[in-house]
């Protein structure tokens, strides 16, 4: 029999339904896999076996009574950014030390209401700021993938590095993640998994620690396109507690998987052919184009003229919002408190000790671009650029384009403590060059594996859709998946 942890969500769902596997057995298999692997991979920052067993037992009882929910008995990992009642929720920051919320985020409560089982909390870049998972207070996550014949540890990408690594290494059936500028799609690309950032407003942000509220969106990381569709269906909802969540029915995303792409118009934006793009990324993109042509789609060259301004504008808007959102961590209500001479001294000492370097850098950039005298020159201008970026997409969609195809990242996974990235934060920020436009425009974006690099590392393609048209992304994504195949790392841990 296949190992229970090797099953996709769709397969596990069938096995649970056929009663050839129980939720208890499936959950035990994941708990053992985490125990065996987490010391090496550091994907989980908190494991909740007792809770998982109790949830699985309840699932088995519901299955026996014929009352199974859409995700009944499916063991999931949760990014540490989501509030989980009574369970470690620290956005992988020292400043939230020992914080265990008294409430549950809307996305996770949707999952538990559908019968899913929580395995624990997943590592991430501190407050989701990073592209390598190295800014986590809990240390870096190791990518389950290594170059062929090498034993050098690589990053899994970030900020949802723990989510991506856990899914790739089969330490959960699927995971929640969030994406502000690429945090779902870049780690998915680096680990050979599938990740979707839905349209802004599709998932409730309630109970997710805020980084940049106008850009943050939750979404799943999964082993294949179908599993991503299954997870998003339950994660998405309209929520009175988040006024930016939209009042729209959630479609049956799973039904879109495998649907024909014949006649769809796929745009290829020429501005994504950036300078010094590695040949293998260019080749991957070309392969994606050929696969979609073979599947009957029409390929159209398009232009998104303001693309090159997206990254600099993102690194103004995101830090500006972060500096405001992170003002709440002051040592008064929750988390870390470092005593001081007086209250101002206590704030200073707490924030100095509680935040890591990258978070401090963003707070300083954000405070600067919002300050009197600089607001118009930076923040206001960046917001105007954001409108131009959004209009670029509106123009191509008005011309009948159904979705756009681009690479997901400008490279494959790089080494932990990469000197180039460590010495120059802008080099790290360049990881987001293909993904931030999507957040700036509020659009859905899907990352799907397209193949392996010459060194044997996964490379991802990105599909960008019309607002609230995640279904087309699932259809086109599954056409790519069908042609490219699926990718699982060789176990070394
Ligand atoms: N949060 C994200 O989407 C990650 C992005 N690399 C950032 O550091 O802002």
TrEMBL record:
<comment type="subunit">
    <text>Heterotrimer of A, B and C subunits.</text>
</comment>
<keyword id="KW-0648">Protein biosynthesis</keyword>
<feature type="domain" description="Amidase">
    <location>
        <begin position="25"/>
        <end position="473"/>
    </location>
</feature>
<dbReference type="InterPro" id="IPR023631">
    <property type="entry name" value="Amidase_dom"/>
</dbReference>
<protein>
    <recommendedName>
        <fullName>Glutamyl-tRNA(Gln) amidotransferase subunit A</fullName>
        <ecNumber>6.3.5.7</ecNumber>
    </recommendedName>
</protein>
<keyword id="KW-0808">Transferase</keyword>
<comment type="similarity">
    <text>Belongs to the amidase family. GatA subfamily.</text>
</comment>
<dbReference type="GO" id="GO:0030956">
    <property type="term" value="C:glutamyl-tRNA(Gln) amidotransferase complex"/>
</dbReference>
<dbReference type="InterPro" id="IPR000120">
    <property type="entry name" value="Amidase"/>
</dbReference>
<dbReference type="InterPro" id="IPR004412">
    <property type="entry name" value="GatA"/>
</dbReference>
<keyword id="KW-0436">Ligase</keyword>
<feature type="active site" description="Acyl-ester intermediate">
    <location>
        <position position="183"/>
    </location>
</feature>
<dbReference type="GO" id="GO:0006412">
    <property type="term" value="P:translation"/>
</dbReference>
<feature type="active site" description="Charge relay system">
    <location>
        <position position="79"/>
    </location>
</feature>
<feature type="active site" description="Charge relay system">
    <location>
        <position position="159"/>
    </location>
</feature>
<comment type="function">
    <text>Hydrolyzes indole-3-acetamide (IAM) into indole-3-acetic acid (IAA).</text>
</comment>
<dbReference type="GO" id="GO:0016740">
    <property type="term" value="F:transferase activity"/>
</dbReference>
<dbReference type="InterPro" id="IPR020556">
    <property type="entry name" value="Amidase_CS"/>
</dbReference>
<keyword id="KW-0067">ATP-binding</keyword>
<keyword id="KW-0547">Nucleotide-binding</keyword>
<dbReference type="GO" id="GO:0050567">
    <property type="term" value="F:glutaminyl-tRNA synthase (glutamine-hydrolyzing) activity"/>
</dbReference>
<dbReference type="Pfam" id="PF01425">
    <property type="entry name" value="Amidase"/>
</dbReference>
<dbReference type="GO" id="GO:0005524">
    <property type="term" value="F:ATP binding"/>
</dbReference>
<dbReference type="InterPro" id="IPR036928">
    <property type="entry name" value="AS_sf"/>
</dbReference>
<comment type="function">
    <text>Allows the formation of correctly charged Gln-tRNA(Gln) through the transamidation of misacylated Glu-tRNA(Gln) in organisms which lack glutaminyl-tRNA synthetase. The reaction takes place in the presence of glutamine and ATP through an activated gamma-phospho-Glu-tRNA(Gln).</text>
</comment>
């Amino acid at each position: 029999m296949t190992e229970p942890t090797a099953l996709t969500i769709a397969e596990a769902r069938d096995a649970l339904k056929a009663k050839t596997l129980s939720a208890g057995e499936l959950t035990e298999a994941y708990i053992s896999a985490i125990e065996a692997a987490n010391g090496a991979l550091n994907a989980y920052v908190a494991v909740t076996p007792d809770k998982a067993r109790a949830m699985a037992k309840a699932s088995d009882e519901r299955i026996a009574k014929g009352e199974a929910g859409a995700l009944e008995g499916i063991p999931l990992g949760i990014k540490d950014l989501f509030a989980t009642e009574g369970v470690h929720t620290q956005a992988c920051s020292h400043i939230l030390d020992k914080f265990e919320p008294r409430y549950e985020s809307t996305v996770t409560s949707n999952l538990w209401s559908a019968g899913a089982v929580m395995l624990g909390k997943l590592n991430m870049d501190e407050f989701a700021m990073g592209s390598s998972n190295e800014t986590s207070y809990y240390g870096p996550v190791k990518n389950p993938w290594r170059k062929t014949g090498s034993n050098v540890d690589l990053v899994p990408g970030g900020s949802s590095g723990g989510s991506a690594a856990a899914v790739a290494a089969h330490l959960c059936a699927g995971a929640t993640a969030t994406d502000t500028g690429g945090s779902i799609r870049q780690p998915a690309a680096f680990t050979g998994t599938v990740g979707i950032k839905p349209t802004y407003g599709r998932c409730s942000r309630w109970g997710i620690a805020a980084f940049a509220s106008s850009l943050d969106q939750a979404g799943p990381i999964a082993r294949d396109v179908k599993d991503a569709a299954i997870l998003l269906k339950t994660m998405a909802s309209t929520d009175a507690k988040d006024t930016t969540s939209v009042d729209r029915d959630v479609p049956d995303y799973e039904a879109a998987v495998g649907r024909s792409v014949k006649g769809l118009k796929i745009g290829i934006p020429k501005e994504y052919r950036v300078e010094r793009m590695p040949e293998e990324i260019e080749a991957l993109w070309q392969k994606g184009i050929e696969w979609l042509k073979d599947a009957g789609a029409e390929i159209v060259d398009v232009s998104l003229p303001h693309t090159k301004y997206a990254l600099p504008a993102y690194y103004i808007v995101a830090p500006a919002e972060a500096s405001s959102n992170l003002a709440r961590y002051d040592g008064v209500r929750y988390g870390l408190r470092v005593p001081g001479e007086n209250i101002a001294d206590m704030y200073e000492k707490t924030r100095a000790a509680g935040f890591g370097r990258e978070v401090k850098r963003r707070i300083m950039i954000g405070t600067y671009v919002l300050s009197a005298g600089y607001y118009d020159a930076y923040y206001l201008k960046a917001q105007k650029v954001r409108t131009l970026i959004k209009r670029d997409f509106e123009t191509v969609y008005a011309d009948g384009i159904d979705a756009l195809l681009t690479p997901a990242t400008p490279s494959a996974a790089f080494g932990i403590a990469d000197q180039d990235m460590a010495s120059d934060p802008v080099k790290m920020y360049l990881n987001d060059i293909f993904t931030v436009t999507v957040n700036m425009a509020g659009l859905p974006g899907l990352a799907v594996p397209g193949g392996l690099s010459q060194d044997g590392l996964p490379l991802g393609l990105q599909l960008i859709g019309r607002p609230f048209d995640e279904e087309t992304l699932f259809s086109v994504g599954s056409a790519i998946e069908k042609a490219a195949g699926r990718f699982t790392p060789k176990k070394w841990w």
